[in-house]
Amino acid sequence: MSSYPISLNLAGKRIVVIGAGSVAAQRVVSLIAAGARVLVISPSSNSRIAELAQAGSLEFTQRPYATGDLDTAWLVHATTNDVCVNERVAADAEAQGTWCIRADKAMLSKAWTPASTRVDDITVAVTAGGDPRRAIAIRDAIAEQLSQGLLPVRRVRPTHGHVVLIGGGPGDPELITVRGRRELAKADVVVFDRLGPTALLETLAPDVEQIDSGKSPGHHTLTQEEINTVIVDRALKGKRVVRLKGGDPFVFARGSEEVQACIAAGIPLTHRGLANGYAVITGHQLQDLAALAQIDLTLVVLMGVANLPELTSGLMKAGKSSSTPVALIEQASTPHQRVTVGILSTISATATSLGVRNPAVIVIGDVVAVPNLLAAQSALVQSIH
User: Fold this and answer.
1) Among 104, 247, 253, 370, which residue's beta carbon has the most beta carbons within 10 A?
2) Angle 140-138-384 (CA atoms, 0-180°, nearest 5)?
3) Is the pLDDT of residue 232 over 80?
4) CA 333, 337, 343, 348 torsion: positive or negative?
């Protein structure tokens, strides 16, 4: 049966989901991500939907389906394991002119969900003649090629300027991260160093501007100030700029200076005049805080939100200044990233009031106070390494 594919803007729309099992959980997560106002109705709920309801991400009504539940619904999902209930929901939806998607018998619906996934801002949706496993296999194959930058992901229409800092590792092109490879494939301009995986430049389209900024002892193709100027200039012209380096752009690579020049985001682990090194510890077992309080290094704490009060008080008791800058980075590099900045003496209370939760990284040190840090969520700059 032929169909008409369409993409819907669900922001602020009321979506009713009947049923609260595993299928419903998968669908409500996508609906919430699309900005919909979700109401779930079911006599019982699985743990994921209960968690989302408790967090205020959706509304949950615990009872069986009743006629009238679909009033004002913009879209309906029937996901129960009772065929009769799903048929009733679909009939009620059709009677009031609302699209209904049935999870049990999709082809009997007037609408259905394709096998879909999202890679950055590209959505892949596949239907395959009523064969869901075939659709999933095709979807996954396309998504894999997109994630590796093997398909033409570069934008054609002009967009806002954007800068991505990519640390390419030790130099072998095969050791660049998957995300780094994908971002490189999107570039309009690449500013590269000789220590980066420059062999990848041969894979770019002929019209991608490639700027050699390589440095060697006693010889700089471009000074750091000139590199900063080039990056900002191209971004302000609406170009997608990739700064391709070897290693990590924020470890002895002056990445933070380039971020500052773009008025952008990111906390460097090292920065000239502020920190000459860093230490990474786990927050599960807080040991040797006295030693860590005495060293002049950036301190990075993983999995430490639960023990944040003990961490901060222990460092201050051991001599760390109470005014030491601290940043809490939740869900780093995701669309839901949040950066909370404070000082050692008050960050614990701030975290509690704001509901800071794992996954989060704690960064303690003067690098947190690098100028323009508070622009950390700017869309202008990303760091990939």
Assistant:
1) 253
2) 30
3) yes
4) negative
